[in-house]
Amino acid sequence: MRKASRTLPLGVLTVLLLSQVCSGIKWLALSHTPASLHINQTLHCKQLAGMVSSQAQLCRSNLELMQTIIQAAREVKKTCQKTFADMRWNCSSIDIPADSTKYSPDLERGTRESAFVYALSAAAISHTIARACTSGDLRLCSCGPIPGEIPEPGYRWGGCADNLHYGLIMGSKFSDAPMKMKKAGSHANKLMHLHNSEVGRQALRDAVVMKCKCHGVSGSCSIRTCWRGLQDLRDIAMDLKTKYLSATKVVHRPMGTRKQLVPKDIDIRPVRENELVYLQSSPDFCAKNDKMGSVGTQDRQCNKTSMGSDSCELMCCGRGYNPYTEKLVERCHCKYHWCCYVTCKKCERIVERYICK
After folding, report:
1. Would the CA dihedral through 114, 119, 125, 131 be positive or negative?
2. Cis status of the peptide bond prior to 339, with omega within 30 of 0
3. What span is annotated as the signal peptide, if there is one (predicted)?
4. C-alpha–C-alpha distance, residues 112 and 278, integer Å
5. Model confidence over 240-282: pLDDT tens digits?
6. At what angle do helices 233-245 and 187-205 cross, to 10 degrees?
7. Is the peptide bond before 317 cis (omega within 30 degrees of 0)?
8. Mind listing the pLDDT tens digit for each residue in 213-247?
9. What are phi and psi of 162, to 5 degrees?
10. What domains lie within the chain, and their CATH numbers?
């Protein structure tokens, strides 16, 4: 007897297609996961887009971790776009639709833009997990360890440190999984993405700072309770942006018994552990070019008085710009009333804006 064929629902088919072509940062498609979907059953892992088989396995064995990873995907998209809002490349291509099977070429071609996104993604997932341990959102981890060194007089260790150790372990397991598959693209791309992901995690390690809370009579702060905590992700992203601007172009060359990435122009030294690397040059992102992954800067807002990358001269690539006016409504003439509320009036003002031709 002939078996009846069964048509898969579109959503399931999309997930299967994504899982077949996924590599690297496709897990960022998790940012489109509906807020109403609570990952509390293994079957929910099949409804999540962008994961390779080993990531799906991690999902099934660590269900409660997935909400945190979904949150990390959203943080990557938001932070990347905010960090590059003043640049020609503004990370708009990271917002891949949930039903798409691939990212834009600017993130797939081994450019310095993909280097930044891989580094930020690796940092963000470990950052979000470490913070989730601290907030009690994950039952499998708790606060980070108390430092071994003796604090200065007037200081004492306490509070709840961000669990960076657990964040790095689980974050790297998930974010590096696609690059460790046999069908994950060229060996050069694998090496590049793994290297840049580790640069992101190193930036996270460097972002550990001492945070303190004051105690004492009338706020005298005679004693400070302190713990080790992570800087905000936006600060880490700015550090990685600096590394992006000074990234090193590399080539894949035999070094001893195997091929490695070495600087293209200064290959007398190995690649440094804290520098972002890229294999292919980027376009100038001035004009729309789908093949290169450039959306162009037409209709982008620019700053007429700036001397930086958001200036109308640089943003508009010499094409010129058009002015327009915008009405802003703001709170003004605020007064404090005893006790205890504030009243404000609404004021309108006209501001002049500029967009690229």
Report:
1. negative
2. yes
3. 1-24
4. 5
5. 999 999 999 999 888 777 888 888 887 667 888 999 999 999 9
6. 130
7. no
8. 888 776 678 888 999 999 999 999 999 999 999 99
9. -65, 135
10. 10-296 (no CATH), 297-357 (3.30.2460.20)
Per-position DSSP letters for 292-348, written without gaps between them: TTEE--TT-EEBTT--STTBHHHHTTTS-EEEEEEEEEEEEEEEEETTTEEEEEEEE
Q: Are strands 301-302 and 155-157 parallel, antiparallel or unpaired?
A: unpaired
User: What residues contact residue 269 under an 8 Å CB cut-off, 6+ apart?
Assistant: 263
Beta bridge partners of 69: none
- What CA–CA distances, in Å, run from 157 to 86, 144, 225? 40, 12, 6
The CA-based dihedral angle spanning residues 251, 254, 256, 257, taken in that order and rounded to the nearest 10 degrees: 130
With contact defined as beta carbons under 8 Å apart, do 167 and 126 qualify? Answer: yes
Task: Check the CA dihedral 12-33-24-65 and report its sign.
Answer: negative
Q: What is the pLDDT of residues 139-166, one digit of tens each?
A: 889 999 988 888 888 888 988 999 999 9
> Number of C-alpha atoms within 13 angstroms, CB side, residue 33?
28
Q: Which of 179, 70, 177, 42 is nearest to 129 (CA)?
A: 70
Q: How many CB atoms lie under 10 A from the CB of residue 50?
A: 26
Locate 225 and state its tokens. 């309770």
pTM of structure: 0.86
User: Rg of the chain's alpha carbons, rounded to an integer?
Assistant: 24
Residue 129: phi and psi, rounded to 5, are -65, -45
Which residues is 229 bridged to in the sheet?
A: 209
Q: CA 246, CA 309: separation in Å to the nearest integer?
A: 15
Give the phi and the psi of residue 183 in degrees, each rounded to 5.
Answer: -100, 60
303, β-bridge pairs: 311
Q: Which of 58-82 are b and which e, b meaning 16 or more Cβ less than 10 Å from the residue's Cβ?
A: bbeebbebbbbbbbbbbbbbbbbee
